[in-house]
Amino acid sequence: MGNGTPPRTPTRPYLHPSISRLRSITPQLSRTSSAASGGTLHSHLHESVSAAPSHFSALSRSRSSSVTNLSVQVAEHGQDRSQSQERSGPAREVLRWAHLRMLGEHVYAGQGLKASALLGTQSSGSPTVLAANGLICIGTDSGRVLVFDFKQTLKCVCGNESSEKSVGAVTALALSFDHTYVAVGHATGHVQLYDLRSPKVPARVVPPTTLAAVASGRQEGHLVGSRIVSVGFVAGRHTALVSADDAGLAFYHSLGKVFFVDATDILRILGKYPDEDLPDGPAALGHRLRRRKSRKPTTILSMAPLPFGTSAHPTDAYNLVALLTPIKLVIVGLKPSPKTWYRRHREPDEEVSAKSRFKGTLAWFPSVSLGADLASASERDSKKGQANGVHPSSTPTLVYSWGETLHLLRVSESKTVEMVKDAKTGKTSKVEVGRIVFEEVGSWTASDDVLALQWLNVNQVIVLTRAGFEIYDARTFKRVEGDPFDAWTLVSPVLSHTTNGTITYSDAVSEVAHSVRVYKGKIFLLGQHGVQVGTLLTWADRILHSVEDGDFLNAIELTRSYYVGDAPGNRNGLPDEPEKLKAVVGQKLHELMVASARYAFSEDRMMDGTHITPDGRGVDRTDLFEGLVSTCARACMALNDFEFFFEDLFQYYDNTGIAGIFLSQLEPFMLNGDIRQVPPHITQRLVALHDAANRPDLVERLVWHIDPECLDINQAITLCQQYQLYDALIYVYTRALRDYVSPVVELLGLVRRVQQYRRQRAEASPTSSSFMDEQSIEPVILNAYKIYPFIADTLTGLTYPSEEPLPEDEAFQAKNDVYTFLFFGRSSVWPVGEGGKLVLTSDEENGMEPTYPYTRLLLRFDPEAFLHTLDLAFEDAYLNDDTRGVSRFVIVKILLEILTSPDLFPEERTFVHIFIARNVPKYPQFIQIQPSTLHNILIGLAEDPDTSTREDRQLAAEFLLSAYTPHESERILELFKLAGFYRILRSWYRQEKRWSELMLTYLEDPDLSQQDVFTSVHDVLLVAKRYNKGKLPDPLAETLRQSIPALLENHIASTAALLNEHLPACHEAALEEMEPDADHDRFIYLQHLLEPAPKTEEDEQVFLPRKSSSPPDLPSSLRLSYISLHCRFEPAGIIAALQHLPHGYLDGLETTRICEDHEVFDAVVWLVDHDGDPKAALEQADTFDQRLSTRIADALATNDDDAQHMISEALHKLEAVANTSISICLDRSQVTSLANVPLEDLWFQLLSSQIDCVQHVASCCSLEALGPSEAVSDNPRALREHGTVSALRSLVHKTFSALMSVSSTRAVSFPRLFKRLVSSASASKGQVSKGTLYTEFRTILTGMLESFRSEGDMLVITKHLVDRDVANTVAELVGERSKGWAPTRGACGSCGVAFASSTKKVGEGEGPPASEPVVVSRTGAIYHTRCLPSGFHANHTVNVH
């Protein structure tokens, strides 16, 4: 806001910041007296709630129907009416159309031949083309032309009844410059010239010719049956015509007379004759006998000669004619001799779709006097008689289009002096020779293909697309208007040609360029059902239209939009200069406001029909008067003239007793800052209105947003004090009275009340009558806290609370007044002079006032907030001058004096220490304190027991130590240790190379994370080694030993890594430091040392690098302990752990014993095999199988609660033993294996052991459990037995599957092995019956075969899928290979040299072979380009390596 006023009302008062500048968090940015500080600490926000103003949109004297327009509402929060109407209102009128009904009765009444025969009237035929430049000429399909004047009176009909048969339909039309002759082009190729004084018979006729006549040189002209597409008069002559036809031929016709006999001189200016003759036929039916052909690029899309304008121009003498084809634009000059002056070919990127390729049109705008500047047609005509040179003239301009792209071309003449020699006399003379100069101004794109194109005026072009009209400004190439219109409703002269196929319907229906004409700003349209004339509405037309409809408010709003320059659409009729525009529009705007106000409050309007509804009830017109205020307010804001608004308009409302409506509508503009200067009498009325409604919040909000000079000061201060509106009160004092001390006095009174409340609450019991409720004091506390942001803003030269910069002089005086008052040594009287009162601060009435009472009160109320405010103030340059009464040094001295007070609270003392410690190093040139005082402050920071401020005090101590070096360093260090200032201690110890103490600071600091602890300790140890010749100092090593418990408590694996790196001899001591029952922790410790990859999440989070090898000096007891712990906590990974350890690292026998004691049988089997005895390993596995099978059998027999757990555990161990045994046999089955034991014996021993286990367990099970799964009942015992036996059988099946994977070797015979197994089982069947034995073998064998069968089926399916994919791929490759012309062989068909060699390799240092272009013929022969046979023509070559 300007003038330093706040933009919004705060919804909450200021509270001291949760992160202040005295805290250890990164301090906030410095705040300076600049506009950029508007969003800093004390910014206030609000959410103003005000009713959206309404308005009336129609004032009608005559019709009650206009009441329907009264419900339009302004958008929320005071948005412009124009924007609301653009969204919700009706479409804006751009072109106003009128039907020429009298003319239509002549043209469309008797179109049909049958209808004319029945009525006995003469039919003129259906309209086809239009010309309108002085007269309205309409050509018909009967070959006649109807000529009307602008009063719609039929002046004449050119042609007769035989015209249709003799010359065909009219397809092109032109009216001469003086409106006396009409040139007509017909569908058969005829061109006729009519004199409107005798229109029955053409004055001249140019008949078509034939190719034979052209070939003989006897005649030039359009061919028979060629449809004339364009015709025009050249310059101002009646007998000079140009015409173009649909075959691409254009001619210049000079219709003269020789000895009173017609003599026509025809000159072809564009196009070529076709090669073949057209079929002969009747001239009138020429187009019907033509077969359909595709349109050629030479087709002439449009042609127009440069017409004469209202001002003569040098280019008029050249008789320029512009011709447009789908591929080029040509401009030909007919004088002094025919010459092509300009040619532009269509760019490739302009070539679009086929339907857009043949869409093109052009239009000239001649030279006109710019003094007539398009204000109206009559004004332009009145300038014709003025002498040349009075007004500047425009340059002839051509606009043309291809598809949707429009181009602008300006034409002018450039003259040069040349030396010409006379052939007769031989003399040389200077002759001025002229040349036509073409300037390509620019181009732009329409929304769709351009169907018709006309100049609306010298600056605007109107374009017709399929969807409607578009108006563009030729100076800016921007669209200024748009109006929807269906182009297909216009007449196309070639629509009849679709019946015989000579042209497509889509092309024919869009050929409407001849149905659109513009003359003196009027747009004439030839429609299928009538002729229309349209006008582009100007700004005055639109405003007048609203006034005529009674919508005065819309008229005011529209005028305002023209005044400010954001009105949509064109600005025709308005001056281009902004000053002139505002002068013209501003006067109209003021007149509209005056007229609207008079009418709104007139007696006639109060009694008109708008107050009565059809049912007889009255109408509430409140929105009418509300809208008048808001609309006039926006208009006066634009004019920057409020005299009418506040004087005349307000008087209308006040006299009729509805001033409240005016005030309620005015208030949103004041709150938004749109209207700042309001007369005091109106402001007083508005404030009184809210006071009467008991809305103090609205009063405060309003006071903030009013310019102080507009306020009634006494009224505002009284209301603010009455309703405790302290923000508004501060605003009134500071901005209206420039008084910055009175707000401090007011707020100090609130602070004193709060302090008194605190004391009473501390001394009184909760049941006492003097015990105040918190809710009653809460508003006082919230308002009291506003003193801190107010002081901060004032002392930094900003306004409160908007925080905008104050003027320099005012800011200086405000700072001086506040500093003098706050830091005065005793209580002051305010206001100064007579009537002032003593401003007291004591908690007790009539109590003793201390020194510096106001500083003490603010410090006691909230020390952090007060010192935060002073910290901001210290950055201001005002305090740089020590000659003033208050400076930084003075303030610090006052604070140091306050520190000596015995009744100071610890919190106050702490923040004073922090404040001084942080500011002394920042301002050394301004604050110079004795070292003893700084020493006491440093000790005070360290001895403070408050742990919540420990980090803040440590940061302050760091600041102070940067400017002060204490003399009692050891004592200070001890105090820092007790205070926990570890960051300072680390810096100190690192500087003095006290590594042990430095390491302990990391271990004792509770704020460090585990990662920071270990990485920091590791860095300390590395640095200490570097300074001690690579060896860890003994004191540091001892400290590390003593710190092992603390390290272990932080992270076990990281401790192991740290000790392994720096103190490997202490591993055993570290393990002993753990609790006796912490075996898992010991396992984690040893696992980190002896395993390469992390196994647990904790081990993955090790913060130090890990060694890849096992520690060689680790005691053997710890190694075996690691194996024992591994067997307990991770038995499944013991084999992987053993594999990682180097050979001989463990005692094999002892390791085997430990694994066997912990029943990790698979590890025992692996260890025995690892010693090189696989047979003994399998024997050991057999022993374990028997033990485990016996345990399973016993568990099945007991059938207690623990039986299932025992069975699952035994099965898991059996599976582990089986897996290890299988891997042993597979290893020995490899070709490279050097095993001395027969391979078949190993497999036999393994299978025999597993089968014995199955038989042993099966002997304890029921017959039901041994059967198939579907035969087992729901008996829990049977289910358990069946599941156990099935699990054991799966182990046998797994072993057989592994055996089959190596059965190809000759060392193992599956039949022999199977026979041995059966024999062995029969010999040692024990308690198993023979039938059970063979049943068991059959089950095992059947399961194996079923598995093999399913695997075989999968292989077959996979083979079929692969075969199909291969077939598809091969077919695709064959198809790709068959494309193109394949050469018969890879050598040149002429020289026989191979193109590429698959055997020759590029040697080292050699580059790839050079490429050479080749040619492949369709016969399959391939040649080098240099070897091509004679007569061989190649269109394309290919480079081949």
Structure description:
There is one protein chain. The chain is of the alpha+beta class and 1441 residues long. The protein is built from 50 helices and 33 strands. A 4-stranded antiparallel sheet has the order 1-28-27-26. A 4-stranded antiparallel sheet has the order 2-3-4-5, with helices on one face. The longest helix is centred in the last third of the chain and has 49 residues, at 1330-1378. It is flat, with a radius of gyration of 54 Å.
* Strand portion: 5-15%
The largest sheet has its strands arranged as 1-28-27-26
Percent helix: 40-55%
Report Rg. 54 Å
Report low-confidence residues grouped into runs of 5 or more: 1-18, 26-89, 112-121, 276-292, 372-389, 1398-1405, 1436-1441
Largest sheet: 4 strands, antiparallel
Total helix count? 50
Shape: flat
Which whole number gives the mean pLDDT?
Answer: 81
Distance between the termini: 76 Å
Helix-strand makeup class: alpha+beta
Q: Count the beta strands.
A: 33
